[in-house]
Design goal:
Elements (H helix, E strand, L loop, with lengths): L3 H8 L3 E4 L5 E2 L3 H4 L5 H7 L6 E4 L5 H8 L4 E5 L2 H9 L4 E3 L12 E6 L10 H11 E11 L5 E10 L4 E10 L1 H8 L4 E9 L2 E8 L1
């Protein structure tokens, strides 16, 4: 049986997410279901080898990479997201990034778009996992928040009527906070950039 969150993905229904202080945060389901935009293209252009798309959602990036001949695998825990992604031609597994994954230690790129560096609500733990997944010299491409600092909280996702459809541990952080956490985890900063009010960091596994 599909959850209310899964049904919202299938329908492209508007959702909103609130943090621990009640602030509304971006949760753009409609954008996830569209073709990659110009900001997405800045990520895709940097995926030059086998890429693991972590928290791939409906698979717009994994599908775009596959269409370009770049080996890519998406992982996501949402049933509807995985089904939609597969229908678009993406190779996707319904798993958590913390589950056993194929190619561990051999991925050249780990892709964390749409704020997915917040998965699990513990950024340090996720960076440790990303380091396990990519090759030495591999790259983590990460979308970050437009403000600095970091908050970890239980996100509450609600539909247009205000009914809760999902809750999950999450974190939100800016570029400087990410870099401060990444250096002790064995990463160095390769690049930072902004496109259409979206912010990105490229890290290299040392």
């Amino acid at each position: 049986m599909l959850s209310r969150y899964d049904r919202a993905l299938w329908d492209g229904a508007p959702l909103r997410v609130r943090d621990a202080h009640g602030a509304v945060l971006p949760f753009d389901v409609a954008r996830w279901l569209r073709e990659p935009d110009e900001a997405d293209e800045t990520l895709l252009a940097r995926c030059t080898g086998p890429t693991l798309d972590i928290g791939c959602g409906p698979g717009r990036l994994a599908a775009a990479l596959a269409a370009r001949g770049v080996p890519a695998l998406g992982v996501d825990v949402a049933t509807a997201a995985v089904a939609i992604a597969r229908s678009c031609g993406a190779a996707v597994l319904r798993r958590s990034v913390f589950d056993r994954l194929p190619g561990s230690g051999r991925w050249e790129v780990a892709l964390l778009a749409d704020g997915n560096i917040g998965i699990g609500g513990n950024v340090g733990q996720l960076l440790t996992r990303v380091r396990e997944l990519v090759v030495p010299g591999g790259t983590a491409l990460i979308e970050v928040a437009d403000r600095d600092g970091m908050t970890e909280y239980t996100a509450v996702v609600a539909d247009a009527d205000g009914a809760t459809v999902a809750t999950f541990p999450w974190a939100q952080l800016g570029a400087l906070a990410l870099i401060d956490l990444a250096v002790p985890q064995g990463f160095r900063t390769l690049d930072r950039w902004t496109r259409h009010d979206r912010h990105f960091v490229a890290l290299e596994r040392r």
